[in-house]
Structure formats: C-alpha cells, structure tokens
Amino acid sequence: MGNIPFAAIFDMDGTLLKTEEVAVPAFKKTFEKLKEDGSFQDRMPTDKEITDVFGMTLEEIWNKLLPGKSEEIKKKADRMMLKYELEILKEGKTHLYPGVKENLQKLKEQNIPLFIASNGLDEYIKGVCDCFHITDWFEDLYSAGRFQTESKDDLVAKLLNDYGISQAVMVGDRKSDIQAGKANGLYTIGCAFGFSNQGELAEADVIIKDFSEIVEIIEKRLTSVKMG
Questions:
Q1: pTM of the model as a whole
Q2: Nearest to residue 209, comparing CAs of 218, 225, 196, 221?
C-alpha cells in the first residue's frame, strides 16, 4: 500500500471513546436478552466486571463473561452486543474523551497518518468513527473483527506491514496496547484516563492523564525520527 515513514496508531475503547457509555448498557441488554431466551441463567456481571474486559479480544471477553457456554451462544451474544452498541451510538448519548477531536485534528493538519487498531468488531469501530464524524481523519481502521487476528500484537504487525510503516507511536489504555507496541518496536503512550488498572501501563514509554498532552509528545517523537 506504500511506504509511510511515521504514523500514529490509536486504540479505540478507553483511549478515544468513553466506552462505558456504550458497552455497559449494551452488555446489560445482551445478558437480559440471553436470560429471556434461556441461554444464560447465571449472575449478571457487574459494571466493574464489564469494564475489566475492555481491550480483550472477543474470544477472551466471552470466555470471561460466558464461561463454559457454547460457541453458538457466544456468537449470539456477539450479534446482540453489536446491535445494541450501534443503537446506543445512534442515540447520540455517548462521548469521546475531552480533547480527542481537537487534538486528532491537529495531528491530521500536520499530515501525520492516523490509524485505529482495535480488538473490537469492524462494524462497531466504523460505527463509532461515523458517529463522531472522524472516519475521514484515519488512513484505515484495523480491527480484530475485520482481520480475525488472535492478538493485538498480530493486528498491529499486520497494519505496519500492510502500509509499510517504518516508525510509529502506539496509543492505548490497556496492557495489551502497550504490549502490542513493544512487540512491534514502537514508542508507546499509555492513557491513564481509560480503564487501566494500577500498574498496568508501567511498561509504556510515557503515560498521559489527558488527551491534550498527546500532540506535543507525538511532535517530539516525529522530530526525533526525522533527525535519525
């Protein structure tokens, strides 16, 4: 697809999007529906148990929240979850983190190629970007749902390879994001305003508490890359 000397790669949930506003009600509706049709009889997961799975692959999420259930039930849950998430997004009651749009725009204006790398479903990632009118700011939206990758490491590796990206920063709020960046030799930015637990971002090159900090960090990184 070409050769890109430098890019910025963003996780979605807990990095750009206040995911709990979408996912918590969508999970609850999904479990209520599964209870109604007899597919689920156990205790409903708490909000904390739901937010703890953010950033995991879909397989990991359902193994955690629907342990021992059949693949058929897990696939049904997938379909329900996506349906409810898209409905909630269309209601317009969800938000990006403060400063996300303004600072993504600043990076875009500097001609820095921007990408999404998420463990979510393809339709969900597209739905979020369309909802906030930021789709066109990204070169591409990479998701585990689209490419059936088994880990964030593999997804980021595919993105880098497909676009011939030489250097990049990886931005995310979970250990899997930092690990994916490190595994692929990238500079990593940990977002402490997302869903990370204590110490989860310890291996990040830098940790930020507000999205507005990101432009200066990426600009400095780009400068250092240009200087060789």
A1: 0.94
A2: 196
